[in-house]
Amino acid sequence: EFILSDDCLKLTWISPNKPANIAFCSLSDVKKMLLGQKTPNFSQYKNPTLENYSFSLLYKDRTLDIVCKDEKE
Questions:
Q1: Degrees, nearest 5: CA angle 17-48-30
Q2: Full-model pTM
Q3: What per-residue confidence (pLDDT) applies to 6?
Q4: How far apart are CA 64 and CA 37, in angstroms?
Q5: By CB atoms within 10 Å of each CB, which of 3, 18, 64, 69 scores lowest?
């Protein structure tokens, strides 16, 4: 689940890797959006059937790799 702040400046999501299970990034930190599965994380867990439903946000020195379950999502 992703939540965009009311002022559209911050994206928050559930992350099992964080102590409080909450992660976020300021949209002003997003440098680029890549469509498809082109990041190193995706290369480890590539799923060609979901290529068209995948994208990554590059922010600071990290990536947020997202796979949607279908075109609507």
A1: 50
A2: 0.79
A3: 96
A4: 11
A5: 69
Q: Quick one: three-class SS letters along the chain?
A: CEEECCCCCEEEEECCCCCCCEEEEEHHHEEEEEECCCCHHHHHCCCHHHHHHEEEEEECCEEEEEECCCCCC
The string of pLDDT tens digits covering residues 24-59 is 999 999 999 999 999 999 989 888 899 999 999 999
d(CA 20, CA 40) in angstroms, rounded, equals: 26
Closest CA to 62 of 31, 22, 20: 31
**pLDDT of 54:** 94
